[in-house]
Specification:
This protein is 43% helix and 16% strand. By secondary structure, the chain is an alpha+beta fold. Helix 1 packs across helix 2 and helix 2 crosses helix 3. The longest helix is centred in the middle third of the chain and has 23 residues.
Protein backbone atom coordinates (compact mmCIF):
# COMPACT_ATOMS: atom_id res chain seq x y z
CA UNK A 1 0.00 0.00 0.00
CA UNK A 2 3.07 2.27 -0.03
CA UNK A 3 2.05 3.39 -3.52
CA UNK A 4 -0.97 5.12 -1.97
CA UNK A 5 1.39 7.69 -0.50
CA UNK A 6 2.63 8.73 -3.94
CA UNK A 7 2.07 12.49 -4.39
CA UNK A 8 -0.10 11.90 -7.47
CA UNK A 9 -2.66 9.94 -5.45
CA UNK A 10 -2.47 12.50 -2.66
CA UNK A 11 -3.00 15.42 -5.06
CA UNK A 12 -6.09 13.82 -6.57
CA UNK A 13 -7.62 12.86 -3.23
CA UNK A 14 -6.96 16.38 -1.94
CA UNK A 15 -8.56 17.97 -5.01
CA UNK A 16 -11.67 15.77 -4.74
CA UNK A 17 -11.97 16.50 -1.01
CA UNK A 18 -11.69 20.27 -1.51
CA UNK A 19 -14.12 20.38 -4.42
CA UNK A 20 -16.73 18.62 -2.28
CA UNK A 21 -15.88 20.91 0.63
CA UNK A 22 -16.84 23.84 -1.62
CA UNK A 23 -20.13 22.06 -2.49
CA UNK A 24 -19.08 21.43 -6.10
CA UNK A 25 -19.99 18.29 -8.00
CA UNK A 26 -16.77 16.37 -8.58
CA UNK A 27 -16.43 15.51 -12.26
CA UNK A 28 -13.31 14.86 -14.28
CA UNK A 29 -13.39 18.30 -15.92
CA UNK A 30 -13.28 20.07 -12.54
CA UNK A 31 -10.38 17.92 -11.36
CA UNK A 32 -8.52 18.72 -14.57
CA UNK A 33 -9.12 22.44 -14.09
CA UNK A 34 -8.08 22.33 -10.41
CA UNK A 35 -4.86 20.43 -11.06
CA UNK A 36 -4.05 22.04 -14.40
CA UNK A 37 -3.76 18.78 -16.32
CA UNK A 38 -5.46 17.20 -19.32
CA UNK A 39 -8.79 15.41 -19.07
CA UNK A 40 -7.37 12.19 -20.59
CA UNK A 41 -4.73 12.19 -17.82
CA UNK A 42 -7.47 12.61 -15.20
CA UNK A 43 -9.48 9.79 -16.75
CA UNK A 44 -6.51 7.45 -16.54
CA UNK A 45 -5.70 8.43 -12.94
CA UNK A 46 -9.32 8.02 -11.83
CA UNK A 47 -9.26 4.53 -13.36
CA UNK A 48 -6.12 3.68 -11.39
CA UNK A 49 -7.50 5.15 -8.17
CA UNK A 50 -10.72 3.19 -8.59
CA UNK A 51 -8.69 0.01 -8.89
CA UNK A 52 -6.75 0.98 -5.74
CA UNK A 53 -10.00 1.49 -3.83
CA UNK A 54 -9.53 5.24 -3.32
CA UNK A 55 -12.46 6.56 -5.37
CA UNK A 56 -15.73 5.42 -6.89
CA UNK A 57 -17.66 6.89 -9.81
CA UNK A 58 -21.45 7.05 -10.00
CA UNK A 59 -23.09 8.52 -13.12
CA UNK A 60 -19.99 10.58 -13.83
CA UNK A 61 -19.64 11.94 -10.29
CA UNK A 62 -16.47 10.99 -8.45
CA UNK A 63 -16.36 10.45 -4.70
CA UNK A 64 -13.78 9.26 -2.20
CA UNK A 65 -13.98 5.88 -0.55
CA UNK A 66 -13.20 5.59 3.16
CA UNK A 67 -9.53 4.96 2.34
CA UNK A 68 -9.48 7.87 -0.09
CA UNK A 69 -11.05 10.23 2.42
CA UNK A 70 -8.56 9.17 5.09
CA UNK A 71 -5.67 9.96 2.75
CA UNK A 72 -7.26 13.25 1.66
CA UNK A 73 -7.81 14.41 5.24
CA UNK A 74 -4.17 13.69 6.09
CA UNK A 75 -2.91 15.73 3.14
CA UNK A 76 -5.34 18.61 3.70
CA UNK A 77 -4.54 18.70 7.42
CA UNK A 78 -0.81 18.92 6.75
CA UNK A 79 -1.28 21.55 4.05
CA UNK A 80 -3.37 23.80 6.27
CA UNK A 81 -1.15 23.35 9.32
CA UNK A 82 1.85 24.20 7.13
CA UNK A 83 0.09 27.32 5.83
CA UNK A 84 -0.63 28.42 9.38
CA UNK A 85 2.99 27.84 10.44
CA UNK A 86 4.41 29.61 7.38
CA UNK A 87 2.23 32.70 7.86
CA UNK A 88 2.00 32.93 11.67
CA UNK A 89 5.57 31.92 12.56
CA UNK A 90 7.68 32.61 9.48
CA UNK A 91 5.73 35.61 8.23
CA UNK A 92 5.19 34.48 4.64
CA UNK A 93 2.41 36.00 2.58
CA UNK A 94 -0.77 34.06 1.87
CA UNK A 95 0.31 33.28 -1.69
CA UNK A 96 3.82 32.22 -0.68
CA UNK A 97 2.49 30.03 2.12
CA UNK A 98 -0.07 28.37 -0.16
CA UNK A 99 2.66 27.53 -2.69
CA UNK A 100 5.12 26.22 -0.12
CA UNK A 101 2.48 24.23 1.78
CA UNK A 102 1.78 22.38 -1.44
CA UNK A 103 5.26 20.88 -1.05
CA UNK A 104 5.18 20.37 2.71
CA UNK A 105 1.92 18.40 2.62
CA UNK A 106 3.70 15.47 0.96
CA UNK A 107 6.74 15.26 3.22
CA UNK A 108 5.63 16.10 6.77
CA UNK A 109 5.95 13.14 9.13
CA UNK A 110 3.49 12.47 11.92
CA UNK A 111 5.92 13.68 14.65
CA UNK A 112 6.59 16.96 12.79
CA UNK A 113 2.88 17.45 12.12
CA UNK A 114 2.15 16.93 15.82
CA UNK A 115 4.94 19.32 16.82
CA UNK A 116 3.62 22.07 14.53
CA UNK A 117 0.14 21.53 15.92
CA UNK A 118 1.43 21.92 19.50
CA UNK A 119 3.48 24.99 18.61
CA UNK A 120 0.43 26.66 17.08
CA UNK A 121 -1.76 25.63 20.04
CA UNK A 122 -4.08 23.35 18.06
CA UNK A 123 -5.42 25.73 15.40
CA UNK A 124 -8.80 24.89 13.87
CA UNK A 125 -8.41 26.68 10.52
CA UNK A 126 -5.80 27.63 7.97
CA UNK A 127 -5.06 31.37 7.48
CA UNK A 128 -7.96 31.56 5.02
CA UNK A 129 -10.50 30.20 7.49
CA UNK A 130 -10.80 26.71 6.01
CA UNK A 131 -11.14 23.95 8.63
CA UNK A 132 -8.20 21.74 9.57
CA UNK A 133 -9.41 18.10 9.48
CA UNK A 134 -9.18 16.43 12.86
CA UNK A 135 -9.34 19.71 14.79
CA UNK A 136 -12.16 20.93 17.01
CA UNK A 137 -13.48 23.21 14.26
CA UNK A 138 -17.10 24.32 14.53
CA UNK A 139 -18.54 25.96 11.45
CA UNK A 140 -19.89 29.47 12.16
CA UNK A 141 -23.10 30.76 10.64
CA UNK A 142 -21.99 32.44 7.43
CA UNK A 143 -23.34 33.67 4.11
CA UNK A 144 -21.76 34.79 0.86
CA UNK A 145 -20.56 38.38 0.78
CA UNK A 146 -22.71 38.98 -2.31
CA UNK A 147 -25.88 38.28 -0.30
CA UNK A 148 -25.49 41.34 1.92
CA UNK A 149 -27.44 44.53 1.30
CA UNK A 150 -25.79 47.91 1.02
CA UNK A 151 -24.92 49.09 4.51
CA UNK A 152 -24.59 45.53 5.77
CA UNK A 153 -21.79 45.00 8.27
CA UNK A 154 -19.81 41.78 8.28
CA UNK A 155 -16.80 39.91 9.59
CA UNK A 156 -14.85 37.83 7.08
CA UNK A 157 -15.19 34.17 8.00
CA UNK A 158 -13.69 32.06 5.25
CA UNK A 159 -11.98 32.22 1.86
CA UNK A 160 -12.90 28.89 0.19
CA UNK A 161 -10.24 26.79 -1.52
CA UNK A 162 -11.72 27.56 -4.93
CA UNK A 163 -10.51 31.15 -4.57
CA UNK A 164 -7.02 30.07 -3.54
CA UNK A 165 -6.52 28.64 -7.03
CA UNK A 166 -7.56 31.85 -8.83
CA UNK A 167 -4.36 33.57 -10.02
CA UNK A 168 -3.58 36.75 -8.10
CA UNK A 169 -6.64 36.56 -5.85
CA UNK A 170 -4.90 35.57 -2.61
CA UNK A 171 -2.51 38.49 -3.00
CA UNK A 172 -5.43 40.85 -3.67
CA UNK A 173 -7.47 39.69 -0.69
CA UNK A 174 -4.55 39.82 1.73
CA UNK A 175 -3.46 43.26 0.50
CA UNK A 176 -7.08 44.48 0.78
CA UNK A 177 -7.35 43.11 4.34
CA UNK A 178 -10.26 40.91 3.31
CA UNK A 179 -9.04 38.25 5.70
CA UNK A 180 -10.77 36.13 8.38
CA UNK A 181 -11.54 38.12 11.50
CA UNK A 182 -11.50 41.52 9.80
CA UNK A 183 -14.72 43.51 9.71
CA UNK A 184 -16.18 45.63 6.96
CA UNK A 185 -19.31 47.18 5.52
CA UNK A 186 -20.91 46.96 2.06
CA UNK A 187 -20.77 50.38 0.40
CA UNK A 188 -22.37 49.46 -2.94
CA UNK A 189 -23.66 46.42 -4.82
CA UNK A 190 -24.34 45.67 -8.48
CA UNK A 191 -26.94 43.28 -9.90
CA UNK A 192 -24.16 41.05 -11.26
CA UNK A 193 -22.86 40.40 -7.73
CA UNK A 194 -19.97 42.86 -7.75
CA UNK A 195 -19.75 44.66 -4.42
CA UNK A 196 -17.79 47.56 -3.01
CA UNK A 197 -16.73 47.16 0.60
CA UNK A 198 -15.03 49.34 3.16
CA UNK A 199 -12.33 47.61 5.16
CA UNK A 200 -11.01 50.05 7.74
CA UNK A 201 -10.07 53.19 5.82
CA UNK A 202 -9.95 51.45 2.45
CA UNK A 203 -12.71 51.04 -0.15
CA UNK A 204 -12.31 47.97 -2.35
CA UNK A 205 -14.23 46.55 -5.27
CA UNK A 206 -14.79 42.80 -5.17
CA UNK A 207 -15.84 41.03 -8.37
CA UNK A 208 -18.84 38.71 -8.49
CA UNK A 209 -16.77 35.51 -8.72
CA UNK A 210 -15.10 36.28 -5.39
CA UNK A 211 -18.04 37.94 -3.65
CA UNK A 212 -20.28 34.94 -4.31
CA UNK A 213 -17.73 32.67 -2.59
CA UNK A 214 -16.24 34.69 0.26
CA UNK A 215 -18.11 33.71 3.42
CA UNK A 216 -18.88 36.29 6.07
CA UNK A 217 -20.65 36.43 9.43
CA UNK A 218 -23.16 39.20 10.03
CA UNK A 219 -23.98 38.90 13.73
CA UNK A 220 -27.71 38.65 12.98
Amino acid sequence: MAELLHPAFEEYCEAIFELREDDLEVIQARIADRLGISRPAVSEMVRRMTAEGLVRTTKGTISLTEDGRRLAEQVVRRHRLAERFLTDVLGLSWAEAHHEAGKWEHVLSEPVEAAINRLLDNPTTCPHGNPIPGSLYEAPDAIALSELDVGGEFVVSRIPEELEFTPGLLEFLEDSQITPGNSGVVEAASPDGTVTVRMGDRVIGVGSFASQRILVATGD
